[in-house]
Amino acid sequence: MDKYISTPVTEEVTSKLQAGDYVYISGTVYVARDAAHHRFMEALKRVEEGASEEERMTQEYKKKAADSLPFPIENSTIYYMGPSPAREGRPIGSAGPTTASRMDKYAPCLLDLGQKAMIGKGKRTPEVVEAIIRNRAVYFAAVGGAGALLSKCIKSSELVCYEDLGAEAVLKLEVENFPVIVVIDREGNNLYEMAIKAYAKDIE
Asked: Across all residues in the chain, what is the average pLDDT?
């Protein structure tokens, strides 16, 4: 089923999405890959080092941790992508997804801080799936190999931070009808596993 959503992606939005849905996203999407995620964790570690175990259990600590990140993490969408240089007259170059598993060791922490949506390609670990369910989040897949087409849905691109990382810097994108597929919904239903089961049933 085709669905059109706008960011921020709230729990109300994820409640209407199911594995296998074709979704078109409009609004703000942040770009970050593994090098940027590593720096997110360094920022969060600095906050953690200055807090007691009791303080880490409070909402105040969670807010302080979230505020240490370079963009508002609450209900955010992060696209795992490393763009190519923009051509003249365009905000960005080819914009295809990168392999999501490279972010698996970072994703649960960010989901627990309020991130609600991820865009990438490929499978996720059980720990990420558990975090998706725990936080009523969603994992989308964009089509690999279609970066030039996907870039046409990006209306603007703005550097947020980590310029020294080059293609792995954090960007803020404004997208319009950016096409993705729900791979793992908030209940943990996984399109990849569903497809394998359906194929196995067919060949029986």
From this structure: 90
pLDDT of residue 94: 78
Residue burial 24-38, b: 16+ Cβ < 10 Å; e: rest = bbbebbbbbbbbbbe
DSSP notation for the chain: -EEEEESS--HHHHTT--TT-EEEEEEEEEE--HHHHHHHHHHHHHHHHTS-TTGGGSHHHHHHHHHTSSS--TT-EEE-B-PPPPPTT-S-S---B-BGGGGTTTHHHHHHTT--EEEEBS---HHHHHHHHHHT-EEEEPPTT-HHHHHTTEEEEEEEE-GGGGGGSEEEEEEEEEEEEEEE-TT--BHHHHHHHHHHHHH-
Instruction: Tell me the CA distances in angstroms from 35 to 81, 103, 170, 178, one per residue in order.
Output: 12, 9, 10, 24
According to the model, what pLDDT value does residue 198 have?
A: 56
Q: How far apart, in whole angstroms, are the C-alpha atoms of residue 58 and residue 52? A: 10
pLDDT at 103 over 60: yes
pTM for the whole thing?
Answer: 0.90
The first and second tokens of residue 163, run together, are: 């310029």
Task: List pLDDT tens digits, range 42-81.
Answer: 999 999 887 787 877 788 888 999 999 999 999 999 999 9
Q: What are phi and psi of 55, to 5 degrees?
A: -65, -35
